[in-house]
Amino acid sequence: MDLGKQIFLLIMCLQVFLIAAVTDPQDFAALSAVKSNWQNTPPNWISIDPCGGSWEGIQCSNSRITSIVLSGMGLTGTLTADIGNLPKLQNLDLSQNMGLTGTLPPAIGNLKNLVYLSLVGCSFLGPIPNTIGSLTQLISLSLASNKFNGEIPPSIGNLLNLYWLDITDNKLTGTIPVSNETSPGLDLLVNTGHFHLGQNQLTGTIPPKLFSSNMTLIHVLLDSNQLSGSIPSSLELVRSLELIRLDRNSLNGPVLLDFTGLTNLSQLYLSNNKLTGPMPDLSGMNLVTYVDMSNNSFDASSIPPWFSSLQSLTSLIMERTQLQGQIPDSIFSVAQIQSVVLSNNELNGTLDIGNNYGAQLEVIDLQNNSITEFAQGSGYSKTLMLKGNPFCAKIGSTENYCSLLQQPNTSYSTPPNNCVQHDCNSDQISSPNCKCAYPITGTMHFRSISFSDLGNASYYISLQASMMDAFQSNQFPVDSIALSDPIMDEYDYLDLRIEVFTSNSDSFNRTGFSMITSQLNNLTFFQRPSSFGPFYFTLDNNGYFSGPNKSSNKGIIIGAAIGSSILVLLLLVAGIYAFKQRRKADTATEEAIRLRDPFASWDRNESAGSRPQINGVRCFTFEELKKCTNNFSDANIIGIGGYGKVYRGILTGGKVVAIKRAQQGSLQGNVEFKTEIELLSRVHHKNLVSLVGFCYELDEQMLVYEHISNGTLKDSISGKSGIQLGWARRLRIALDSARGLAYLHELANPPIIHRDIKSTNILLDDQLTAKVADFGLSKLLDHTEGHVSTQVKGTMGYMDPEYFMTQQLTDKSDVYSFGVIMLELVTGRNPIHHGRHIVTVVRMAMDKTKDLYNLHEILDPAISVGNTLKGLEKFVDLAIRCVEEWRANRPAMGEVVKEIENIAEQAGLDYDVEMLSTSASHYDSNEGTSLTTKSSLSTVEVFHILR
Ligand SMILES: *[C@@H]1O[C@H](CO)[C@@H](O)[C@H](O)[C@H]1NC(C)=O
Ligand SMILES: *[C@@H]1O[C@H](CO)[C@@H](O)[C@H](O)[C@H]1NC(C)=O
Ligand SMILES: *[C@@H]1O[C@H](CO)[C@@H](O)[C@H](O)[C@H]1NC(C)=O
Ligand SMILES: *[C@@H]1O[C@H](CO)[C@@H](O)[C@H](O)[C@H]1NC(C)=O
Ligand SMILES: *[C@@H]1O[C@H](CO)[C@@H](O)[C@H](O)[C@H]1NC(C)=O
């Protein structure tokens, strides 16, 4: 069928479709206009009938658009006033689109039916429009983690249906508005359960009028602002309160609150203020679990009796609160107690933990007090910190608890569900059910928790179970959830990493993805165990769907009266699309033929004498390899990957090799195997791991590589291998691996894209020369097109966002991954660390006007061992160019090599500024090896001198 016929048919179809379109024309026009200011809308947003079911994320009722959910779609652009022309809209969720910016249009106030508005985790700025107060149906207003500034609009006080008010983590200023004769205020929100106003720049006092007995608040979060004045005693009128966070402000004066009425109170944070007067009395508050009043200026007092009387208390945090006198042992025997932190006080006398201490007690921190004796023999063996007490000086502080800063175990990670985890070969992650897949990854930021023993698995197990319950009972496509890396952040929020795996295939489609990221911010979606307070979720910036979108043809549908010129354009788009699809299908057929017998072209002969010999790469028999690995004994295993196991072997003659043996049913097929042999046999470069031989018989596929003694770069950076990498060494490793890659891109014939560059694929030999490994996923670069279209593979965190979106692989995709490695070298952090992408972390921390670009805090401490950090800024500049979002803005690998050479030279690392072309000429592998050794030796000498 030729293209003409296809277009003709499409015209016919579309005309039928046009007549059948169900979307209200005004709604269509409005949404099209909104869309025209966005990039990366779902690829299927091309029909003229959003309600017809083809526009992902759109729901309608009676031809009118009622719901827009595009959470985490990688949208970029602005939200225009056209959004106000969707009068029936009830649900607008654009959360987790970091690329959405600009101001929130006042026209949003026209959405009189809006019930749910979530813009969490976008980049909106400017003031929150006062028209927001017209959305009187609103139940949930979630604007957390944007860049809104200006004041809180008093009109929010008109939202009498509002249950959830969340404006945390913005740049809001001014005072908290309360009503007067002429203006509404937040005090009118008597149906609201949640005031989440933390992490802003609010000033002034907390207005006493804000709270009254008519209110039904359960959470009041005003933490991390600049509020001053005293805590209004009207707060005690809100009997429903369960959580109060007023910490990290400048509140002063005595706390005149009577807590006895707040019988539901579970968590109280008053820390880091300037509160004075007597320490607040919490006697009889039997639901209180977590109390932190640290760093205030309370009157000096001895330990109040209520410390030991709270039946539910898990965490008592009272640093620097002027406590004095003897510590009663009853404080350690509170039934649920996990942490007693009373450091930097003036506690004296004898410390006696007693024999009755609570079974869950994990941490006792009494550093910097005046304790003179320690009654030992209680048997308490968990974390105990006594440094800075006279008692320690006396005994010469040889005891652990006097010297070392002990840290309790606070790690957790969901274990495999009765199955064996294996490393997944590409960017996939192994799920708790041991399936390799592409999960949704992000961080849940809990604004409060009722416990402090972060290493206690039972909390996370019940959280995970209740989340699974909710997903499954709502028939979401979720296979499993992994929780890991709990950590208290600088705001005392518990950050917990989450990975959600899909049940359908290995990755989410847009609908599934958006559904789940959206619900992860829906407060009622699942019943949290009571130990977890409210949270917000942020998505990792991993570009699941981001990048330029070829099918979002800006402007085509703008204004969209359904005129004929538009129809023609639409058809053209559709025609091109169909044409591309057909070409994809053709390629797929060729691929299928190739798959059937990948070795056909090798002219294989069963007799051992005529085994294929390629470019000096040896063909081993199964018996030979079996023998040299001691019958593939477990003791010889040096690695396990998605492909299979890697064994250490010693060939007759003593050469040590690494043998990669494909496991039965391995995901990598014969094609990859053959590709890898062909590629590796052709490339020889001192910064590439070279292939010694291979074996394919008896259903076995094995590759035999030179053995690289010092393991992966990742192991060295993480300190696992015990190798110290100072700045100079890191610079050299970057240069080595850049050279290896540049060789693949620019000198191999045909050029090769590695496409899985990551720190576990960079190996270090005994001279610490870096070598790029693992070509199992490599693809030849077809120069006629300049890119390779292929199923997306790669590793989360290292993956080029543009590649992910377009599925077109170019050498610039490797440049992106290499840039990530450069940042890893500088920071020592994983590409995804506490749920945030290293690129984002560095970009945000960077300030070019400051020394070392202000990166001190995120630099790997080990980097400065023994030398200066000369050239580090330029190195970071280069890394940031490598991770530019658009590949056109990234340098080529050859350029990267040159720049690193310059940086090294200017930094005085006077070594080995050898041209790419000379190193590329070592085609004979033996000669290459000897040259390698020679030049590395001189380099190492230089390094010894430098350190
Ligand atoms: C009433 O409150 C509004 C907003 O908070 C403020 O601008 C105005 O000055 C107040 N009016 C009076 C009479 O206090
Ligand atoms: C509480 O509500 C009642 C009735 O709606 C009202 O009369 C009263 O003034 C309110 N009290 C406060 C303190 O706002
Ligand atoms: C401990 O401190 C209290 C209050 O400062 C003081 O009265 C008492 O004498 C001290 N006890 C000892 C043993 O130093
Ligand atoms: C996308 O995923 C959802 C949820 O699993 C599923 O219902 C839907 O059929 C999928 N859509 C497509 C186009 O595959
Ligand atoms: C939030 O979750 C609840 C409970 O599952 C559900 O009824 C509600 O529709 C959800 N809200 C949105 C906006 O999806």
Automatic annotation (TrEMBL):
TM region(s), chain numbering: 556-579
Keywords (A to Z) from UniProt: ATP-binding, Glycoprotein, Kinase, Leucine-rich repeat, Membrane, Nucleotide-binding, Repeat, Signal, Transferase, Transmembrane, Transmembrane helix
Residues where ATP binds: 660
Location of the protein in the cell: Membrane
InterPro entries: Kinase-like_dom_sf, Leu-rich_rpt, Leu-rich_rpt_typical-subtyp, LRR_dom_sf, Prot_kinase_dom, Protein_kinase_ATP_BS, Ser/Thr_kinase_AS
Pfam families tied to this protein: LRR_1, Pkinase
Keyword DNA-binding: no
Occurrences of domain Protein kinase (ranges): 632-903
Segment forming the signal sequence: 1-21
PANTHER family according to UniProt: LEUCINE-RICH REPEAT RECEPTOR PROTEIN KINASE HPCA1 (PTHR45974:SF266), RECEPTOR-LIKE PROTEIN 55 (PTHR45974)
Protein name: Protein kinase domain-containing protein
Organism expressing this protein natively: Hevea brasiliensis (Para rubber tree)
